[in-house]
Amino acid sequence: MAIPTVFIDGEAGTTGLQIYQRLAQRDDIEVVSIDPDKRKDASERAKLLNNADISILCLPDDAAREAVSWVTSPTARILDASTAYRTAPDWAYGFPELRAGQRDRIAGSHRVSNPGCYPTGFLAVVSPLVRAKLIPTDFPITVNAISGYSGGGKKLIAQYEGFHTEQANQTDPQQAESVSPYSPYGLKFEHKHVKEMQTYAELSHAPLFVPAVGDFAQGMVVQVPLPLWTLEQPPTGEQLHQALVQHYEAEAFVQVAPYGDVSQLRDGNFLEAKSANGTNEVQLSVFANDDTQEALLVARLDNLGKGASGAAVQNLNIMLGLPEHRGLVD
């Protein structure tokens, strides 16, 4: 049987490079690379897109749409890491743990969209609770999240690392500045991930999403506070937790922390944003006070792992009928 070929269009970018590093050492996949001098050659890229078994697009949205328009081969399959097709009805959404049957749809599709990092965390905690009818579809959901600066791509990485280098070389400590440890953004509430969150959580209204960038390279915390007292029949914290446990009981890459477990807290008080770094895991937690009828849903993941390249490799494995953990677990 021939070894499947994979072309990464955008191999030199942050996500593309991470995917390449995960695939390059495998003997069950042949990674096809474009000549560096021809990265902007449309005809050469089109040739590779049509000849490879699967192409992974690690491109800006408009460039991804253009690349897809060049695909004419009926057998060529596309896994897109941009936001261009994430809510397109004729594309399979690449979150296999989302609901029953999602893996089968990914496996059988010629067009798969890789999820966003923030939506992965959000959907992991919210979607099962909506489907279990513990959270109504019209619930006014808010999302507070922070990601490492690597999520901003090469430009933001260069800004942060350049700043750190500059401060490290500062001979007068009193003159050294500090980079903000927490910087909210997207304050016009038009973030491109919101539609994705609403669509796959099956919500009547878009969630109020407030993302932030932190002064660390990798890692992510997604928080969804729930004022359960607003509901006529508010669920308990244990009910929320049990619904997540049941939904993910057979999943290798989604871990639900024991309810009330404080061992996951640093110094007994703090959640570490980088706890899932270097893995393809989503780590879920439920914190609640049944007396005040308040709860907090938390998801932690590596924004470059399950939030990007790790998810892409997982989806690629599913599309090729290979073991799902291949290239993700030592």
TrEMBL record:
It is an enzyme of class 1 (oxidoreductase). The active site is at C117. It comes from the Bacteria. It comes from Phormidesmis priestleyi Ana. It is found in: Cytoplasm. Residues 5-106 form the Semialdehyde dehydrogenase NAD-binding domain. GO terms for cellular component: cytoplasm. Pathway: Amino-acid biosynthesis; L-arginine biosynthesis; N(2)-acetyl-L-ornithine from L-glutamate: step 3/4. GO terms for biological process: L-arginine biosynthetic process. HAMAP family: ArgC_type2. PANTHER family: N-ACETYL-GAMMA-GLUTAMYL-PHOSPHATE REDUCTASE, CHLOROPLASTIC-RELATED, N-ACETYL-GAMMA-GLUTAMYL-PHOSPHATE REDUCTASE, CHLOROPLASTIC-RELATED-RELATED. This is N-acetyl-gamma-glutamyl-phosphate reductase. Its main location: cytoplasm. Its EC number is 1.2.1.38. Catalyzes the NADPH-dependent reduction of N-acetyl-5-glutamyl phosphate to yield N-acetyl-L-glutamate 5-semialdehyde. Belongs to the NAGSA dehydrogenase family. Type 2 subfamily. It catalyses: N-acetyl-L-glutamate 5-semialdehyde + phosphate + NADP(+) = N-acetyl-L-glutamyl 5-phosphate + NADPH + H(+). Keywords: Amino-acid biosynthesis, Arginine biosynthesis, Cytoplasm, NADP, Oxidoreductase. GO terms for molecular function: N-acetyl-gamma-glutamyl-phosphate reductase activity; NAD binding. The keyword Oxidoreductase applies.
